[in-house]
Amino acid sequence: MTKNRPANSHLRENIDARPLHRDDLFAEVSANHVGLITRIALSYEADPALRRELVQDILLAVWVALDSFRGASSLKTFVASIAQKRSISHVTRRAREPRQEELRHDLPSFGPMPDEIAVQNDMRDRLIASIQLLPIPQREAIVLSLEGFNYAEIADVLGISANAAMLRCQRAKTALKANVEARS
Amino acid sequence: MSKGDLEDLAALWREDPDPAEQGELERLARTARRRGRLGDYADLALVLLIVGASVVAIFAARSPLFMAPAVLLIIATVWLTLKRRSIRHMSRMLRTTDRESFLEDSIQSVKGNLRRNLLSLVLFPPIAPLALLLKMGTRTAADPDAIMGALLTWAGSPRGLITMLVLFVLMIFLVRARRRYLAELRHLQELRRAYEDEARRDAQAN
Asked: Are A138 and A168 in contact (CB under 8 A)?
């Protein structure tokens, strides 16, 4: 379901051929990875206005950090790592725990039938709320797993071994399943 | 949870933004880039502005009595600005390594903010009257009696009252910021414990 926009897709191939330029890299982030950033922000912040601020904050942090990006990992992994950390900082900066709000039903969906849209939105709302209930160490593991990162990439983002990443993802999946079922 | 279940959830989770939302996000990205560039120049501009204004004030005073505190004021301002900049820089450039280091850096950053806050709380009360004295000195050609009279007149004027009110509000802001930093530090320490628990479980499962 994840589809990257074709714009700037040539940048990936050119990265090895010339020095990494912050403007080009940020253009690629802007074109291809903002979805990832918003979903990571969504797993930490239920309030739409605060989430928008968080997304802006993550984008600014990515812009600043791109100066030090040397291509050791993929740009997606680099962006996910920054997004997770800024989200953690965002959560810890708030005086109270994030409220569990009713999510707006204007989330993007695919499917022509209004009933299907309603059901899908309801399922997605439940999934998001269940993710937000997980402890942060498990939450970031499951979000990366849902985003399609493999265990080695998750380990890279979290700074743990691939084996530990696998174990953490398994625990997170079990906890997520329990949360989803409890909300059904 | 079976692999199929997880794939279904992943498909549900990874819905991309629609074109309108994508456009809005790209606008946010452009704003972030603009803010990032502006931030690079803002600190330098601020230091130049403060130093420039203080140098002009020194020459306007034409009194050795007021030159010393003015120079002190410049040094304190530059030092404070640099200190603030380094702390902000540290908070932005948190190391992209493991969570333990990240949380440790975050905790150090908050502790840095707490130190900066304490510094402001301690230095602000003497610096504000010093700046006020400097201002009155430039107006009265550094005559001590005239300064006292000018100070009293200023304190009774609407402008003086508003300034004192602003200073009072600033102090309240600093105290509130201190409480916020303490809460943040507590949250970070709790989170560090949660990660330690998770790492213990990883080790036990191994």
From this structure: yes
Residue of A nearest to B192 (CA): A137
Nearest CA in chain A to B5: A177
Helix, strand and coil content of chain B, in percent to the nearest 5, comes to 90, 0, 10
Choices 3.40.1000, 1.20.1740, 1.10.1740, 3.30.70: CATH for A1-99: 1.10.1740
Whether residue B13 is contained in a domain is answered as: no
* ipTM summary value: 0.73
* Separation CA B195–CA B189 (nearest Å): 10
Task: For B90-116, write each residue's pLDDT tens digit.
Answer: 555 555 567 888 888 889 888 988 998
Interface test with A, best of B99, B108, B196, B206 (most A CBs within 10 A): B99
* SS3 assignment, position B158: helix
Distance CA B44, CA B53 (A): 14
At the topology level of CATH, where does A113-184 sit? Arc Repressor Mutant, subunit A (1.10.10)
Residue B3 belongs to some domain of the structure: no
Q: How many domains does chain B have?
A: 1
B96–A85 CB contact, under 8 Å: yes
- Quote the pTM value: 0.71
